[in-house]
Amino acid sequence: MASELSYPKSKINKVNRLGERGNYECKAVHEIIAGSPVVHVSFNPGSLEDYPVILPMIGKLGSFENPSADLTEPLDLYLHGYVSSRIMNTARKSANGEPQQPMKVCVCATKVDGLVLSLTPNSHSMNYRSSIVFGTVELVTEPDEKLYAMKLITNGVIPGRYDDTRVPPDGAEMQSTQILRVTIDHASAKIRTGEPGDYEKDLKREDVLNKTWTGIIPMYQAYGEPQESSYNRVKPVPEYIQNYVKETGETEKQYALTAISKPSAGKA
């Protein structure tokens, strides 16, 4: 069996604390981002006097050059937003040579799978999956790639949704929406699973063991029953929406429960 493609480990993406939990495989990094409804994008707005900026955004992975590529392969990260938002203006200035260096971003996605309750405050933790990618930004200006990214992002919210809407976007919508392509230069994931990691000295104390409940409270993303809008005329709820709500919720729940029984690397 061929080995999984991975991001090279470097001083930029190396997981230092509890490094044994680090994972650099494309699949591990990409699955966390793909399963996160929102990613957080940080960037430097340009002036040394400005605070760093971090924005919650919808981001989806794909490859315009290789549309059949899956999560095990190198992919770009597409972000969309209003054409005159701060991040879009900063990217535009960078593209025009202000500043000279290409705009770089750091993007983070985190999923919490459980609250880990231990015998001592310092040993409390969470079961989690997190990905961080470091990349270089380019404005998407080619119409076909822009439409590809808009479809990718829409279907990333609910698979199959794009073709069930009024498409393609009209001229005004195309002009008011800007797409950024993030070429991923470095990336890593960090994952915790398992039970609490209490110290041996506490596991020998009967007074503490008899006083404190320990265990895991599973956490997972769940979806409620779809609620129609005030002007909806389509009944019943389309099957692809119903299936997504049911199947995604069950998958998230199953992972959170399975993660409890997986040994975790390192304490806490």
From TrEMBL:
Record-linked SUPFAM superfamilies: FMN-binding split barrel
One Pfam assignment: Pyridox_ox_2
Top-level taxon: Eukaryota
Stored PANTHER family: 5-NITROIMIDAZOLE ANTIBIOTICS RESISTANCE PROTEIN, NIMA-FAMILY-RELATED PROTEIN-RELATED, FLAVIN-NUCLEOTIDE-BINDING PROTEIN
Protein name: Flavin-nucleotide-binding protein
